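hey can u run this one w/ zinc ion bound, need the structure tokens asap thx
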Amino acid sequence: MAIIDLRSILDLAWPRSCFGCGTALTNRNGFLHICQNCLRRIDFILPPFCHRCGCPHFEENRHAVGCGACAGRDFAFLSCRSLFELRDVGRRLVHELKFRAGHHLLPDIGRMVAEFCPELAGKILVPVPLHWRRRWLRGFNQSMCISQALAKELHCRVCPLLRRVRHTRTQVGLSQQQRRSNVVGAFSINPSAIKKNCIAREEELILVDDVFTTGSTLHACAEALAAEGGFVRIRAFTLARA
Ligand SMILES: [Zn+2]
Ligand SMILES: [Zn+2]
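ok here u go:
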């Protein structure tokens, strides 16, 4: 009761507004910074989606593993699940978080994941690392922030088992093939984190990133976890899917 009262008092003093449209928030939809209208404009990915790459517009191909988007592509992770499509309000949400340090949106993100991807509860999350230079310039690693939001809401464990050993150019504007070669050898196991977290090789790991575009970054991360760490059950989760 005390918390609710405090919230109401804070709302009176500093009215909250929707990050998507700026409307003052008076509704109580359970989310702190998004209105009902904007919430409806997020294209959440619901089943059926490709069991391998998470693509929502997939056509089942009985003769191939995966869908039209991922058939013939080899991934070092078993599957990837994304929360929403990278467009409209979903795109703004990612943008706000990544480029405008929208950390106040993290509790809402945690709630969305809890609602749409409850299967992530209790999992071991491995954030995709940034190179220290980019991390320093941005001030935070968005994948780590997303992981922590999930951990809070879904009682997951965040284990930063990877480090970025090579600075890479941005993947934006690169072809599928270029993206893959751009991140080759970019990631390595963080030996001290492995020791500290004491994770058995059979444990399932969930790589966490902000956006799935071609899956190249997640593939490179999973390769490092498998080759250097000996992990065998690696899946992935991203906030959005391009
Ligand atoms: Zn709105
Ligand atoms: Zn697929």
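The domain at 73-241 is CATH 3.40.50 (Rossmann fold). anyway lmk if its weird
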